[in-house]
Amino acid sequence: MSKPSNPRALADNEAKAVANTLRVSPQKLNLLAQLIRGKKVDRALADLEFSRKRIAHEVKKTLESAIANAENNHGLDVDDLIVAQAFVGKSLVMRRFAARARGRSSRIEKPFANLTIIVREVETPAKA
């Protein structure tokens, strides 16, 4: 006998995608997560397409992955999807040392971040 499988963590109308170790600080990545949170996915994709932030391309790829997961793995309608959650977490921090004046050195921290995007299908009201 095998042990029973774990129940699905998300609801039936949700799908998610995760991007690990993105080379950006969590604070800067959270600015883009706030930009797309709660929007319809087509609007969020357009906002990310024309954003001037360097990491916007990676966020857009993660959102597209969440949309593809919703469509292919869970059979959700792409036109009814919204970005339900977009949250950022800390990952590792590379530490480097740089030479400074008078024989000293200082630490340079190069942070990484994780991004999780959850999309949800909402029913659009029928137009009569």
From TrEMBL:
<dbReference type="InterPro" id="IPR018260">
    <property type="entry name" value="Ribosomal_uL22_CS"/>
</dbReference>
<dbReference type="GO" id="GO:0019843">
    <property type="term" value="F:rRNA binding"/>
</dbReference>
<keyword id="KW-0694">RNA-binding</keyword>
<dbReference type="InterPro" id="IPR036394">
    <property type="entry name" value="Ribosomal_uL22_sf"/>
</dbReference>
<keyword id="KW-0687">Ribonucleoprotein</keyword>
<keyword id="KW-0699">rRNA-binding</keyword>
<keyword id="KW-0689">Ribosomal protein</keyword>
<dbReference type="GO" id="GO:0006412">
    <property type="term" value="P:translation"/>
</dbReference>
<protein>
    <recommendedName>
        <fullName>Large ribosomal subunit protein uL22</fullName>
    </recommendedName>
</protein>
<dbReference type="InterPro" id="IPR005727">
    <property type="entry name" value="Ribosomal_uL22_bac/chlpt-type"/>
</dbReference>
<dbReference type="GO" id="GO:0022625">
    <property type="term" value="C:cytosolic large ribosomal subunit"/>
</dbReference>
<dbReference type="Pfam" id="PF00237">
    <property type="entry name" value="Ribosomal_L22"/>
</dbReference>
<comment type="function">
    <text>This protein binds specifically to 23S rRNA; its binding is stimulated by other ribosomal proteins, e.g., L4, L17, and L20. It is important during the early stages of 50S assembly. It makes multiple contacts with different domains of the 23S rRNA in the assembled 50S subunit and ribosome.</text>
</comment>
<comment type="function">
    <text>The globular domain of the protein is located near the polypeptide exit tunnel on the outside of the subunit, while an extended beta-hairpin is found that lines the wall of the exit tunnel in the center of the 70S ribosome.</text>
</comment>
<dbReference type="GO" id="GO:0003735">
    <property type="term" value="F:structural constituent of ribosome"/>
</dbReference>
<dbReference type="InterPro" id="IPR047867">
    <property type="entry name" value="Ribosomal_uL22_bac/org-type"/>
</dbReference>
<dbReference type="InterPro" id="IPR001063">
    <property type="entry name" value="Ribosomal_uL22"/>
</dbReference>
<comment type="subunit">
    <text>Part of the 50S ribosomal subunit.</text>
</comment>
<comment type="similarity">
    <text>Belongs to the universal ribosomal protein uL22 family.</text>
</comment>
